[in-house]
Design a protein that fits this description.
Layout: H1 3-26, H2 32-36, H3 38-45, H4 49-64, H5 67-79, H6 88-93, H7 98-112, H8 127-136, H9 139-148, H10 150-162, H11 167-176, H12 186-193
Helix pairs in contact: 1-3, 1-4, 1-8, 1-11, 4-11, 8-9, 10-11, 10-12
């Protein structure tokens, strides 16, 4: 590899790590720890102004809205329903028996890194956790999980976009680090995932027809 190409690879990796770490914190519940990290998030993104633009609306919201209000908004949008589910395998496997096996695969990836990954009581497919793992522990392994669950990321992005939430820009920044262009709509995401129209559902009745029909008996 030539020196110029090696430099470009390092710069791309640095940018991706910055995006993943900033996204991990911005998509997490905005408790006091997250709010105290706002200057650090801006510092992480400072060297990558193109990516920083996608984070600006959420960072502005976190820094200007009273903490209790911003926390209540987060709970409303991300915790009280599944419309903006941050658990990657929910979009592909829903609440089915197969999902337990999938979650075990995430755990195996973390274990192979030889780092102790504290899940803080979250399921291992929780997007902020996957992003922080990619940023701080194993960029390649974390990116592979993101690539594998690209359809989940895209469905989440489209859902946030439909509801006019600024977090959709953060999902766009994440997807921009992955190969290929983002699909324009839900049908294109399903095509990306390799599935046609759903013919059978497994497990609980989906709350939303946008759930990807990847789970099969």
């Amino acid at each position: 590899m030539g020196a110029k190409k090696a430099t470009a690879v390092r710069e791309a990796a640095s940018r991706d790590r910055a995006v993943y770490l900033a996204a991990a914190w911005c998509l997490s519940y905005p408790d006091q720890d997250v709010l105290e990290r706002l200057p650090l998030i801006r510092s992480v993104l400072a060297e990558h102004p193109d990516a920083a633009e996608d984070f600006a609306p959420v960072l502005a919201q976190l820094s200007s809205v009273p903490p209790m209000e911003v926390q209540a908004r987060y709970v409303q949008e991300f915790d009280l329903g599944k419309r903006h589910a941050l658990h990657l395998s929910y979009w592909t496997d829903g609440d089915t028996r197969r999902r337990g096996e999938v979650l075990g695969i995430f755990k195996q990836v973390y274990r192979r890194s030889n780092f102790l990954v504290d899940t803080h009581g979250e399921l291992p497919d929780y997007l902020p956790m996957v992003l922080e793992f990619a940023a701080r522990v194993d960029l390649d392994a974390g990116r592979e999980l993101l690539i594998q669950y690209r359809p989940s990321l895209e469905m989440l992005r489209l859902g946030l976009l439909d509801d006019k939430l600024p977090h959709s820009l953060i999902l766009r920044a994440i997807c921009d680090t992955l190969p290929g262009k983002s699909p324009a709509d839900q049908q294109a995401v399903m095509k990306m995932a390799g599935y046609g129209p759903p013919t059978e559902s497994v497990g609980l009745e989906p709350y939303d027809p946008r759930l990807l029909p990847l789970a099969r008996s």
